[in-house]
Structure formats: structure tokens, C-alpha cells
Write a structure and sequence with these properties.
alpha+beta; FAD/NAD(P)-binding domain; 3 domains; 8-stranded mixed β-sheet; 20 strands; 30% helix; globular; glycerol-3-phosphate dehydrogenase (quinone) activity; FAD; oxidoreductase
Length: 496
Amino acid sequence: MTMGHEQYDVVVVGGGVNGTGIAMDAAGRNLKVLLCEMNDLASATSSNSSKLIHGGLRYLEHYEFRLVQKALAERESLLKNSPHIMWPMRFRLPHRPHLRPAWMIRTGLFLYDHLAKREMLPGSRSIRFDKSGPLKPDITKGFEYSDGWVDDARLVILTAKKAQESGATILTRTKCVNAVRGDKNWTVTLRDMVSEEEKTVSARVIVNASGPWVSKLFGETLSMPAPKAIRMVKGSHIVVPKLNQDQEAYILQNEDERIVFVIPYEDQFSLVGTTDVEYEGDPKDAKISPEETDYLLKIVNAHFVRQLEPSDVVWSYSGVRPLMDGEEENAQKASRDYSFEIDQAKGKAPLISVFGGKITTYRKLAEVATNKLCHFFPEAGGRWTKTAVLPGGDFATKDSLAAELKQNFPWLADDIISRYVRTYGTASRELLQGCTSMEELGQLFTGNLYEKEVQHLVKHEWAMTSEDILWRRTKQGLYASTSDVEALDAYLEKNL
């Protein structure tokens, strides 16, 4: 069945952090925007990161000073605009003198402190570890510096919400199956992956922001050769019982010159990652290998008193990073920077394609891409996203918002308030509207995930499946049994 034909200025293909970022920026400049994503938002690379807003300390070793400076400059803007899903974090780097001498680390940290202006984050310093800490007693010296944490999947969801509030149309589970180039417009065929219904729209410009599928889209949908190749690199992470004592994170050096993060995660756990493994195949099929699990556990066990085994792994995930393909001999040296290709063949509708990128620079990437878009729309507005607060981020401090919720909903448990604040921010008020008791939150599915929250996610955040809810909108999947998941699936099937 074919439905109506609507005209858009821009069709963005890809619902990851880059695609939603571009849709948000372009819609805020008064362009008519449609974003289509063939799966759920943030269903691939953008929900499988190390959850860090960081400059990339280790990139300094590869002389990527421009990338680090750009990321450091973005770091504080993001922390200010999304204080519910992002927050500062201190990182401790145990000194292993046989791997990197102290002078090299101090030099790197000095650059890290000074390559961009800092207002929120304290600088680096030398530290000593004592026997009361979680590290092995032979590790006595180290360094400490600042970076930031982000709930990556929620960043994508909230960016899509901001795009929608600015006028964009967001279509999830909708695949761009064909795009025919005309003189002034693209004719784009979209397929609803649930109903299999198709519709055709027109767009003056297409933005290919499909991440690891960016090159594939050229041949399958656009009927043209890809202008450049990408290098697919798999990064895997494991979640284990909590190793971090407080809210500090650790950055561990390894014999192969790579580093591994150990980050506080969802109160009761630690997140360990990442690996860098060359990958071929469909990005959606990426999974951690036993060798990657052993690699991460070996590094952790070399540093921490508590020794872990594969049976301690609570959860794991893998994502495929689409990096620009250069001449580097191994994955860890491939650049995390981004580039654009603009195809504006004479007399034909333009195409902009995004290659590479990292989550910390997503807003800047989107701004640069939208600036390029605006060459074709001279009536468009100017830059606006540097100080744009994402939905739910309009509050002074987490503590003050938590206190307000406690006053208005005194029956609500502190652990639920804490999670709502760092998940929804001020949108927690909307979620809880009309509730006067725990009973009115409805059915408990797992952890502290209640029916009222599920309804909110389906109505306001494009959630359709238990996976959407348990792993991308929340991390309540960490507490869910098989029967819990089945109950949630049954509820969604009945109520959707």
C-alpha cells in the first residue's frame, strides 16, 4: 500500500547520535526535517559506547591534538546542557613505569588540562594509593584527572525529542528503501518495518548519517558508489559487580599500549571496556567474543585486589564504530575524527554523507553538517545548539530536583527518585503526574520499573519492545529475569 507524498527540506537517514543531532540542529533553523531509522533510536553504535564525554587522553599519543582540543571544548557545553544524563567524573590512572614514564603522563595531562578552557572540571594531579583502596598493594602511585559520563542511549533519545519539539518528524522502525535523484528533489521511499506499509516523500537534500551502514546505503538505496570506505572496529564491554569504591573511575594501562576503563555503573556495578577488534559483517550482529572477555578480565585482575572470572560478568555489549579508513596498521590507531562528503552534481539534488565521529563531538559534527546544509537554504536560521538544553535538563542541581520530587511525592522511594532524576530530569514531573501512591505506579516489572514509566516511554519516547525499555531507555535489564522480560513483552503486545 502506498500513502501520501509530502515535501521536506531534509531527510536524515540514521537515528544514532549524529543523525538525531543533525535533525535537531536543522529543525531548529526552521528547516522541515524528517528523520528515519530502520530500527529503534540508538540501536547500534550510539548505545554501545564507553559512556564517556571525554577528549580522549590516549589520542594525544597518536598526535590527534585537533581532535582532542575539539572534544575538550565540547565537553563542558554538553555537561551544562544535559546535567541529568551527564555529569563530571574523576579518573584515576595507576602508574605503571615500565609502560609509560611519569614525565610522559604528566606532559599528556598538562596538555589535557590546557588544550581547551575549563570552567566546571578540576585539573589533574598526582595521587598516592593506600591499602584501603581496591587496587593491589604494589600499586602505590598514580594520577587523577577529569572527564565526563554520559548515558549514551538517552542522549540520542533526548536529542530526537528536542528535534521533534523543534518541528522534526521522527520515524523509527522506518527504513529508507529507495531514493531517486531528480533535478531539484529526491524522491524517497520509506518502509514501515512493522506494518510493511510504504510511503513516498520528497526532499531537497538527503543526509546519510547511517553510521556503520553509511557506505552500504550508497549501493543498496542511492544506487551510486560510496565516495570513501569506512573501517569497522568492534568495541566490547562487560558489566561486573562493583569494583569502584566511590564515584571515581579508573583508566588502566596494558602491555599492548591500549587502555581499559573501569567506570561506576548503575550504583551496583562497574563497566569495563573497551576492546578494538577489526570487524566484518552486519554491525547488528556484533557480539563479544570469549577472547575479548578474557582480555578485559586479565587487565582488571592485574590491577584490582578482587579477582574476577567469566562467571562474574553480569552483562556484555558490543558496538561497531565506523572509523575513517586510513593507512593505519591497527584498529586502535584509526582516527576517531569525522568528515563529510557533499555530492552536488550539477543540476541534481544534493547529498551529504557523514563518516566517522565520536559521541563527545556529536553536537559540533551536527552543527558543521547543518552549516553545510544551509548553503542550500539561504533562508535558514543561524547556529543555536551550543547552549541548547536537552529535554529534562532545565534544573539547578540534581540534589535540588530530587528534594523537590521528594516534597511533591513523599511516598516515592529514594532510589526511584535518584534514577528518575538522572534519567528524565524535570520530565519526571510529567511521568508522575496524577500519582499519589506507589500503587498508582501500576504493575512492577523488574527492579524499580513500574507500569507508569513503561507507559511514559511508549507514549513519549518511541519505545516499542522490552529491549527498547530495559536497555536503551533504562538499564533495568540488569535486574530482569527471563520471566520478567516475558511479562513486559506480554504487556507491550497487549497494550500497543
